[in-house]
Amino acid sequence: MIHNNNNDTLAELRALAQPGDAAFDIALAAEAVSRCLDRGDTASVQAWFEDLQAADIADILAELDQPHAALALSLIPLEERAVVFGYLPKARQAELVATLRRREIVELFHEMSADERADLFNALPEHEQERVLPALAQAEREDIRRLSSYAEGTAGAVMTSEYATLGADLTAREAVEELRRVAPDKETIYDAYIVDGDRRLVGVVSLRDLIVAPPTARVAEIMETDVVYARVDDSRKSAAEKIARYDLTALPVINGGDRLVGIITADDAMDVAEAESTDSFHKVGTVGPLGASLRDASTWLLFQKRVFWLVVLVFGNIFSGAGIAFFEDTIASHIALVFFLPLLIDSGGNAGSQSATLMVRALATGDVQMRDWGRMLGREIGVALLLGLVMAVAVSVLGVIRGGPQIAMVVSLTMICVVLVGSLIGMSLPFVLSRLKFDPATASAPLITTIADAAGVLIYFAIASMLLPELAAMSDAAG
């Protein structure tokens, strides 16, 4: 319970989370903040926010309703407010901007980093953009227009223009002094970029190298000229992969004229990797990109993103039903076959999903290339046969108990075949989609399962139709 005494209130708020806590109950914290604000106890909230990390404050603001969130945001000093604002979901940012006066919006934009400012501008309705833009300084307006012009999903859309440049003729001492001077306005100074008179990228030098170099050494003597870079129209995914591959703190981005226009920092690359991973998980579940968090997504949006593939897969399952209908006579003669049907087709689907998951991930990370398909196919056949044999032995005992030796033989042989076919479908479909320029993540568990189910039904009853009459005849002859 929150007491009227401000000291008691602050102590109880601090009991919810301490600086450095990895996690705490955000919903409980937001409820406590709401009660304080309702009583007018803004001092306790303001003092508690001073103890918290910006990301934790943003999580609390995201849980509050709009009036409480706007009031809580106003309690944070402007510079820190811009940092907190950058952690908020884009939808909540747009909501809060709508509650601010134009002067407050301009101050907030001025304190935000260039890339986050451009992202926020893109998230605003057009009438809000028109309200904000004239009040900004010309340099900020041009920067927003430029950063906002790049297509979503490209390196240009996630880069920042707040990077440090140095002249090649500066000494190491002069370069360090220059970086100290510009540091407050730059995203990072751990890497500085050397450009020529036309702003073409010619080299990069790290702050560490400048510090350990002789003070009189020229930047041109220290810098690396073999620079890893991205182009503005490269995918954001490929840019993030370069940062991870080459262990970079930032990746320079150049335009069509090879001029340096921005950088992508390692923390931005982490955000990209998280977003790409989320998209891939959605595709594995045959769900389109949401463009919002699951918590904030509307019912209609979730319906739109899920309905297409579910309807497609419904028609895909018709093939399974048609296969069962085709073998009605066999089923009627050996009703025990029905008992094993779910077990067999699920085994094929599960094996296919495993193979597809491994292959999609390997293709996404570059561990496997298109040229590796033949070698991977041979190995997958070996693995699938071993898996199928083990599973066949396991199910054969149940087959003897439930249907006798003849049914056990059919079930065991079918198990080997469906695991083999399911595994090969799961392994091959991502390659096929990649060759057709589709995202291999589309080879998702529901899609693989639907194909494997139809194949499993046909394989099972085809084997039963061929073997059972022969086995029955052999049994009669032996009798």
UniProtKB/TrEMBL annotation:
Topology of this chain in the membrane: Multi-pass membrane protein
Where is the major localization of this protein? membrane
Q: What is this protein called?
A: Magnesium transporter MgtE
Q: What are the subcellular locations of this protein?
A: Cell membrane; Membrane
Q: Which residues cross the membrane?
A: 307-327, 333-360, 381-401, 407-433, 445-468
* Gene Ontology CC terms, in alphabetical order: plasma membrane
What does this gene product do?
A: Acts as a magnesium transporter.
Assembly: Homodimer.
Outline the extent of the CBS domain. 159-221, 223-280
Q: Which UniProt keywords apply?
A: CBS domain, Cell membrane, Magnesium, Membrane, Metal-binding, Transmembrane, Transmembrane helix, Transport
- Show the Pfam families listed in the entry: CBS, MgtE, MgtE_N
**Molecular-function annotations in GO:** magnesium ion transmembrane transporter activity; metal ion binding
Q: Which PANTHER family match?
A: MAGNESIUM TRANSPORTER MGTE
The stretch of residues making up the signal peptide is none
Q: Which SUPFAM superfamilies match?
A: CBS-domain pair, MgtE membrane domain-like, MgtE N-terminal domain-like
Q: Which SMART domains match?
A: CBS, MgtE_N
Which family would the database say this protein is a member of? Belongs to the SLC41A transporter family.
Per the record, the domain of life is: Bacteria
